Structure formats: structure tokens, C-alpha cells
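Example record for the data management plan.
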Amino acid sequence: MQFSAAQIAMMIDGKIEGNANIQVGFFGKIEEAVEGELTFLANPKYEEYLYSTAASIVIVNHSLELKQPVSATLIRVQDAYTAFATLLDKYQQIKNQQLTGIQQPAYVDATAKIGEQVFIGAFAYIGEKAIIGNRVKIYPSAYIGNRVTIGENTIIHPGVKIYHHCNIGNNVVIHSGTVIGSDGFGFAPQADGTYIKVPQIGNVVIEDNVEIGANTTIDRATIGSTLIKSGAKLDNLLQIAHNVEIGNNSVIAAQAGISGSTKIGNNVMIGGQAGVVGHLQIADGTKINAQSGVSKSIKNQNTSVTGSPAFEYTAALRSQAMIRSLPKLEKRIEELEKLVKELLTQKA
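Corresponding structural encoding:
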């Protein structure tokens, strides 16, 4: 697919500096791009490559002031990173639109309802009374259980498993290896030291515009729903336990774990390898630093925490600085003790 600078500028509301008719067919990194490719400059650390890149078109910010001539055609926008992301999304949509039909072998139950322009890859399984919306793409070896509902324009990548009765919204992306709706970790301890399994009869509800990375697990609720709200972005290798709620537009990085029945607010950011214990409330706008352990509810909005146990970010940094100073403090105390001892000896 070929696009001219004029066409691209129209899609991202940009202003052209250079040849409006020049065409590109693919994307490249600014330091590696070749003729016929499009790239972008958002991070000032890469500005040096703007003057040497072989890319045909470069998307830059309106605010960028050139320090020397540029051979590429520039498209100036308000936010180069967002504009580039928009282009990638449109490119992906065009590619996905070309995929339709049901490859063989695949199993689609006779009671399932399949929308228009749907793609179902080879070895995929669609269970009883499943509902698949328009323009959904289900890639090979995916499993869609009985009575699962999938909204329009959703993409289910290879090997995804969605257990029975779970609901997936519109414009959702679920990457390979992710499991939606496996049993929550519920076991009742007995007097003899054994455990009785608590049946998990709820489901998982994933609202619109959510993206879930590879090999993430989201457990079904014991009763009710585990809920991922609109706009949430979940990274690879996450564990989301039963009855958890993730708020609108919240972001969780890889290897984090959220224990059962914890409620994460809107616009929360959780760093990699962080852990949150069960039955907590995390307020809107909270930022949890990587590898933090959250053991108490965070009730004030827009709070930043770090450490294990996690506490307020600035106070935590001061504590860390004090800990690093302990050897010096210990030496000073020893010197003071020695001085006091000498003074007492002289007085005696």
C-alpha cells in the first residue's frame, strides 16, 4: 500500500513541509529508515537522526525548530507520537479488513451467531450460542467457549482461551496465550488441613477499547463479574484474580498481580512486578511504582506510592536516602561516643 504525504497529512491533520506528492509504503525507525518509508521524531534524544535519515517522510512536532536542512518531507503535527500511533492503527485496520471468512479446519457450533466480515482462523473453536460481532478477527487455535459474547471490531490473537459466559466488548485486542475466565483461586480450609474448592460461577466482563497483552490471566468471579472497564490497557504476564475491578483507562505493566476483590480506580498506573493484596480500594489517579507491594487501601486520589510495603512516594525516597546514610551516621555516633568517654575520663 502506497500513501502520499498529502494523504497522510489529511489523516493526522498535519502541515506539509516539502514534497506533498512523495509516497511511502512502510514504516521505519528514524535512525534506520530507508527511502520509501515513513518515520517520526518525538523524543529530542533522536533529533540528530532527523538530519541524516533516509526516510522519505518524517512526522515532527509543530514546535520543532530545525538546526540544519532536512532532506525528508516533514509533516508537522501537534503531537508526533500520537499522530504516528494513529497512522499505525489505521494501517492495521486496513490490513485486518482484508481478512474474512472461516478457514478450515475450524469448529463453529451450529447455534453460534456470527456477524458480518468476520475472520475465523484454522483450528479455532466457537462454542454453543456464542455471539461474534461484526468484523471480529479470531486467529488460529483460539478457543471461544459456550455463550461467550464478543463485540464488533475485536481481535482475538492465536491461542487465546475465553471460557464460557464471558463478555468481551467492542474494539478489544487480546494477545496470544491469554486466558480469560479460568477459575478464581477459591478454596475453603478444613479442620484436617485439607481444602474444599469453592465453585467459581461468575464470569469476566471486558468493556470497550481494552487491550490485553500476551499470557495474561484474568480469573472469573466467584459470584458476579471480574470487570475490566473501558480503555484499560493490561500488559503481558499479569495475574488478575477473581472479582477484581480495573477502572477506566488504567494501565498495568508486566508481571504485576492483583489479588481477589480489589477495586482499582480510573486512570491508575501500576508498574511492573507490583503486587496488590486482596479486598483493597485503590483511588483514581494512583501511581504505584514498579516492584511495590500494596497492603493497604489508597484512599486519596492522585497519590504516588513506592516500596514494600508501599507508602507515599516522596516520603519513601527520603527514607531510602536516610538508609543510605546509615553507615556514615553510625561512624559519627561511634566518634561521639569515643569523645564523650574521653571527656568523662578527663573529668574524673
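Summary line stored alongside the record: The radius of gyration is 27 Å.
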